[in-house]
Amino acid sequence: QVQLVESGGGLVQPGGSLRLSCAVSGFTLDDYAIGWFRQAPGKEREGVSCVSSSDGSTYYADSVRGRFTISRDNAENTVYLQMKSLKPEDTAVYYCAARRGWPFLHAHSLYDFWGQGTQVTVSS
After folding, report:
1. From residue 91, how far is each of 16, 24, 26, 66 by CA, in Å?
2. Structure confidence by residue, pLDDT tens digits, 87-118
Protein backbone atom coordinates (compact mmCIF):
# COMPACT_ATOMS: atom_id res chain seq x y z
CA GLN A 1 0.00 0.00 0.00
CA VAL A 2 1.46 3.31 -1.10
CA GLN A 3 1.54 5.95 1.59
CA LEU A 4 3.11 9.37 1.96
CA VAL A 5 3.14 11.12 5.33
CA GLU A 6 4.23 14.73 5.75
CA SER A 7 5.43 16.22 9.00
CA GLY A 8 7.35 19.22 10.27
CA GLY A 9 4.89 22.02 9.63
CA GLY A 10 4.05 24.67 12.19
CA LEU A 11 4.02 28.34 13.06
CA VAL A 12 7.20 30.29 12.44
CA GLN A 13 8.11 33.98 12.38
CA PRO A 14 9.16 35.68 9.15
CA GLY A 15 12.81 34.94 8.47
CA GLY A 16 12.62 31.65 10.30
CA SER A 17 13.19 28.09 9.13
CA LEU A 18 11.35 24.80 9.02
CA ARG A 19 12.17 21.37 7.68
CA LEU A 20 9.36 19.30 6.24
CA SER A 21 9.62 15.54 5.93
CA CYS A 22 7.80 13.19 3.57
CA ALA A 23 8.06 9.58 4.68
CA VAL A 24 7.03 7.15 1.98
CA SER A 25 6.08 3.49 2.14
CA GLY A 26 4.88 0.93 -0.36
CA PHE A 27 7.46 1.96 -2.93
CA THR A 28 11.06 3.12 -3.10
CA LEU A 29 12.47 6.49 -4.03
CA ASP A 30 14.57 4.75 -6.67
CA ASP A 31 11.40 4.34 -8.74
CA TYR A 32 9.36 7.46 -8.02
CA ALA A 33 9.92 11.16 -8.42
CA ILE A 34 8.75 13.26 -5.49
CA GLY A 35 7.31 16.72 -5.60
CA TRP A 36 6.42 19.25 -2.93
CA PHE A 37 3.36 21.36 -3.60
CA ARG A 38 1.51 23.95 -1.58
CA GLN A 39 -1.93 25.45 -1.52
CA ALA A 40 -2.95 28.63 0.23
CA PRO A 41 -6.61 29.46 0.94
CA GLY A 42 -8.34 30.63 -2.20
CA LYS A 43 -5.37 29.87 -4.42
CA GLU A 44 -4.43 27.16 -6.88
CA ARG A 45 -2.11 24.37 -5.82
CA GLU A 46 1.42 25.23 -6.96
CA GLY A 47 4.63 23.33 -7.36
CA VAL A 48 7.38 24.25 -4.93
CA SER A 49 10.15 21.76 -5.62
CA CYS A 50 10.72 18.27 -6.94
CA VAL A 51 13.45 15.66 -7.19
CA SER A 52 13.92 13.02 -9.83
CA SER A 53 14.18 9.31 -9.10
CA SER A 54 16.93 8.62 -11.63
CA ASP A 55 19.74 11.05 -10.93
CA GLY A 56 18.49 13.17 -8.05
CA SER A 57 18.07 16.30 -10.18
CA THR A 58 16.22 19.00 -8.31
CA TYR A 59 13.89 21.75 -9.47
CA TYR A 60 12.48 24.80 -7.74
CA ALA A 61 9.80 27.38 -8.27
CA ASP A 62 11.20 30.86 -8.80
CA SER A 63 9.50 32.05 -5.63
CA VAL A 64 11.51 29.67 -3.41
CA ARG A 65 14.78 29.19 -5.28
CA GLY A 66 17.70 30.03 -3.02
CA ARG A 67 15.59 29.68 0.13
CA PHE A 68 14.28 26.09 -0.07
CA THR A 69 16.29 22.92 -0.54
CA ILE A 70 14.87 19.52 -1.42
CA SER A 71 16.77 16.37 -0.58
CA ARG A 72 16.08 12.67 -0.39
CA ASP A 73 17.38 9.87 1.78
CA ASN A 74 16.80 6.67 -0.15
CA ALA A 75 17.86 4.50 2.78
CA GLU A 76 15.21 6.10 4.98
CA ASN A 77 12.68 6.43 2.15
CA THR A 78 12.20 10.05 3.13
CA VAL A 79 12.27 13.31 1.21
CA TYR A 80 12.94 16.59 2.98
CA LEU A 81 12.18 20.21 2.21
CA GLN A 82 14.41 22.58 4.12
CA MET A 83 12.83 26.04 4.15
CA LYS A 84 14.78 29.13 5.20
CA SER A 85 14.09 32.86 5.18
CA LEU A 86 10.40 32.14 5.31
CA LYS A 87 7.96 34.83 4.28
CA PRO A 88 4.27 35.31 5.10
CA GLU A 89 3.46 34.43 1.49
CA ASP A 90 4.90 30.95 2.10
CA THR A 91 1.92 30.25 4.34
CA ALA A 92 0.03 27.26 2.94
CA VAL A 93 -0.69 23.59 3.33
CA TYR A 94 2.30 21.70 1.97
CA TYR A 95 1.86 18.34 0.28
CA CYS A 96 4.29 15.79 -1.04
CA ALA A 97 3.36 13.64 -4.00
CA ALA A 98 4.86 10.79 -6.00
CA ARG A 99 4.85 9.71 -9.60
CA ARG A 100 6.79 7.35 -11.83
CA GLY A 101 8.87 9.06 -14.44
CA TRP A 102 9.81 12.69 -14.77
CA PRO A 103 9.27 15.05 -11.81
CA PHE A 104 7.05 17.70 -13.38
CA LEU A 105 7.10 20.77 -11.14
CA HIS A 106 4.13 22.59 -12.63
CA ALA A 107 1.77 19.69 -13.30
CA HIS A 108 0.42 18.41 -10.00
CA SER A 109 -2.32 16.48 -11.82
CA LEU A 110 0.33 14.10 -13.14
CA TYR A 111 1.18 12.85 -9.66
CA ASP A 112 -0.43 9.60 -8.62
CA PHE A 113 -0.05 9.51 -4.85
CA TRP A 114 -0.42 12.28 -2.28
CA GLY A 115 0.10 12.82 1.39
CA GLN A 116 -2.43 14.45 3.69
CA GLY A 117 -0.57 17.75 3.92
CA THR A 118 1.05 19.75 6.70
CA GLN A 119 0.24 23.36 7.58
CA VAL A 120 2.97 25.98 7.44
CA THR A 121 2.12 29.39 8.85
CA VAL A 122 4.57 32.27 8.68
CA SER A 123 3.45 35.10 10.89
CA SER A 124 4.72 37.43 13.57
Report:
1. 12, 24, 30, 17
2. 999 999 999 999 998 899 989 999 999 999 99
